[in-house]
Amino acid sequence: MSRRRFRAWLAAGLLVLVAGCGGTPTDPDFESAAPPVPTISVAPQDGATEIDPLGPVRVSTSDGQLTSVTMTNEDGGTVEGLLTPDQSAWKPSEPLGYGRTYTITAEAVTVTGTVGPITSSFSTLAPNNQTVVSFRTTGGVPLSTSTTFGVGTVVVAHFDEDVPDRATAEKHLAVTTEPPVVGSWYWTDNRNAHWRPEKYFASGTKVTLAADIYGKDLGGGLYGQQDTKTSFTIGDSHVSIVDDNDKQVQVFDNGTLIKSMPTSLGRGGSETVAGKTITFWTQPGIYTVMEKANPVIMDSSTYGLPVNSRLGYKETIGWATKISTDGIYLHQLDDTVWAQGNTNVSHGCLNLSGENARWFYNFSQPGDVVEIRNTGGAPLEVWQNGDWGVPWAQWQAGSALR
Hints:
- The protein is mainly beta.
- It folds into three domains: 3-124, Immunoglobulin-like, CATH 2.60.40.3780; 129-235, Immunoglobulin-like, CATH 2.60.40; 238-392, Beta Barrel (L,D-transpeptidase catalytic domain-like).
- It is built from five helices and 31 strands.
- The strands form nine sheets. A five-stranded mixed sheet has the order 21-20-19-31-24, with no helix packed on it. Strands 1-3-6-5 form a four-stranded antiparallel sheet, with no helix packed on it. A four-stranded mixed sheet has the order 2-8-7-4.
- A hairpin with a 4-residue loop joins strand 14 and strand 15.
- The longest helix is centred in the N-terminal third of the chain and has 17 residues, at 3-19.
- The protein is elongated and about 100 Å long.
C-alpha cells in the first residue's frame, strides 16, 4: 500500500472511531475527561552517547498509530525497521554500527489529529579495537561445507587480536553437533581457543560453529567486529596406526584395516647447533592430518639445521601429507625404500615409497588421525598438533570458564 493510500485509510478509520464514541458534548463525563496530549517517545533519548549498537531502539506513540518513521546514519544511509501489528511502535530490523550517529524522524496520527514530526538523535560507542573470529583446523584449513573432515578434527577459533577477557569471549563461542557430543574449549594462547570432544567424532556428525561476538566487550576496549557462523560434516573414519616395533603404517577405514605400508621413522638422537638442540625422533602421540602438498620443499634450515651441515638438507619431496606444525610428514622418499619396514633413517618424517605416499595423500582428509606408538623422544605437545594427547580432565581445565 502506498504511503498516501495508507494515510487516507488510516484517517478514514480514525473518523469512524470518532463517530462511534458514546459520549456527547452535553455529557458531564465527556466534558470532564479531557484526553491526554498524544506523544511520540524515542529511546535512546535525544543526545545520548556511547549507546550499545545491540541495545534497544524503539519509537512508540502513546495514542493512535505511527504513520512515518525514518532512521538514518550520519552519511544518510537508511536503517530498515519494523512496525508492530497495531502500528503503535517501531524498531530497527538490523544491527547498528559502531561509532555512528543516528537520527530518527517520526510522525503519528491520533483521534485528535497528527503528532510530529519529531526528531531525535543519538550516537553509538566507538571501540578502541575490534576483532574477528575465523574457524579453522589446526592446519589452518577453513572449516566449511566445501569439504569433509576427519574424525580427529579439532576446531580452532582464531581471534585476529589478543583477547583480554577469555571467559567472556568463550561464552559467545558455540559448537552444536548432530548427534550431540560433549566437548570443551582449551585456550592455547590469547588468540586461539581449540575445541574437541572427549573421543573422536562419529562419521556423519554435522557440526555448526558460531561466534556471537558483535557488540560484545571482550575486555580492554576490544569488541567483536562481526559475528561468524559456519558448519561442516565429519567424513569416513580414517585412523592410521604407526608402531615402531614393526615399522608399518596400518590404515583403518571405518574400523577395517585396508592397507599396511612399510615406513622408516626418525633415526633418533640429537645434535646441538648454535646452542640449539635438534632431535631426530618421530615423537609418540596422536597426530591429525593438517595439510597436503605435492611437491613440498623441505629445508632443514627452517628448524635450525643448516643446509650445509652434516645432516642438513633442502629437497623437493612428492606426495607429502603434513601431521605436525614442526614439519612431520608422511611422504615419498624412494631412496629409503630399502630401510622402510626395518630401519629408521629419517630426520623425523615417515618415509614411504612413491606408490604408498601417493595413495595415502589421495586417501587423506584434514583431521584424519595418525597414532604413532613406541617411538623414542618426548611425547607430542599441543603446540605441535598434539591436542588429542591431552587427558580429558586437563583439556577441560583449559577452558576459561572452569
